[in-house]
Amino acid sequence: xxxxxxxxxxxxASVEQGFVxxxxxxxxxxxxxxxxxxxxxxxxxxxRELRSRGYAMERYDMDQEAIERHPGGxxxxxxxxxxxxxxxxxxxxxxxxxSLILQAHVDVVPEGPSxxxxxxxxxxxxxxxxLYGRGGADMKAGHAANLYxxxxxxxxxYQPAATIYVQSVVEEExxxxxxxxxHLRGYKADAVLIPEPEDEKLVRANVGVVWFQVEVRGLPVHxxxxxxxxxxxxxxxxxxxxxxxxxxxWNEKKKGRAHFEDEDHPINLNIGKIExxxxxxSVPAWCRIDCRISIYxxxxxxxxxxxxxxxxxxxxxxxxxxxxxxxxxxxNGFHTEGYVLEPGSEAETxxxxxxxxxxxxxxxxxxxxxxxxxxxxxLYDKIPALCYGPYSENIHGFDERVSLSSLKRVTSTMALFxxxxxxxxxxxx
Length: 429
Fold this sequence. Notes:
- By secondary structure, this protein is α+β, with helices and mostly antiparallel strands.
- The protein folds into two domains: 5-206 and 339-426, Aminopeptidase (3-Layer(aba) Sandwich); 208-336, Alpha-Beta Plaits, CATH 3.30.70.
- The protein is built from eleven helices and 20 strands.
- The protein has helices at residues 5-17, 19-31, 40-52, 64-69, 136-155, 177-185, 232-252, 301-317, 346-359, 374-381, 404-422, and strands at 56-60, 85-90, 100-105, 126-127, 130-132, 158-160, 164-169, 192-194, 202-206, 208-217, 269-276, 286-295, 328-330, 335-336, 339-340, 365-368, 385-387, 392-393, 401-403, 424-426.
- The chain has a six-stranded mixed beta sheet, sandwiched between helices.
- Helix 1 packs across helix 5 (136-155), helix 2 packs antiparallel against helix 5 (136-155) and helix 9 (346-359) packs across helix 11.
- The radius of gyration is 23 Å and the shape is elongated.
């Protein structure tokens, strides 16, 4: 049942009242460099923040064996984070509303050459409406919004009348195993909301993602005799060319697919890293390329991986050099399926009402061609999985930034959504 106008106004005003502190907390999170494997300190900070508000706390490690047994698990590697998952649990006096998971990730992608940033990447500068910093948009602003949306309710004397799990995960940027671990741990709710930077829109569909590494071996000789050797880097370029052919063929398969057919290029192959060779005057003996490719919802990640491997090996058999020394293919990260959020759930209706109250605009939805942790809850918990968050620019790039006015609107939407979806009860005196 929609909230009364007076209560809506009080909640929005409470978000406004706490917003300076919310921005300050977001800046504190940005200052903590939390690239893959280095999230221990920030997770400790999150733990303390949640505990200070009286939530029941749990902190636990990844269960590699359980994750790798699950069809949605991604492979572990030496680079896999060992940082813990942190969960704060709100339990009401009387469970009269609908339960909710609020989730966010703390891991960020590497910042690249810091000299290409206008401000140092971990110096959270505010200029006008923009808060700069690596991970500020993706997604420490949303991470803080989870907490401060609940704070806004508390400030006016209310708490949710249902169980809420505030989950802080890692590995969102590389495997998705952190979100999967919360599922395997047994946390369940009637809906999930993840405030990723999605331009104040609801994600209707997103792709699955497969990471893989191709290693090519060459025959090293002095460059004066390079015709008698084999250049592994040149051979890797030829493999990339064949992968581009595969990418084009997969993009052609968008025809007839809802949410994808009208996109120019829904399937993206990225050659994200390349290294090889040992000496400028030696024909390189090795080259490794790290790749990422997306897959449509409904495509099995295992089947897609098999097609990738078979395609590379088939191409190698037709290549004069690679037919003698075939490349090796290793799947070393994301191994995940996409999902579609079917319209019509009550959770979406409640979010749409909250968005309209906070922004004065109707809620739009769209397809995003990237990975989202919401896939865990959509595919394996079978619950409404809502991904909705603030305007941002340059995520994964230089000068990443999030709009503060948008963040305030989104936090108001989230607080209104929680109040309506979970119901409210007065905080005990």
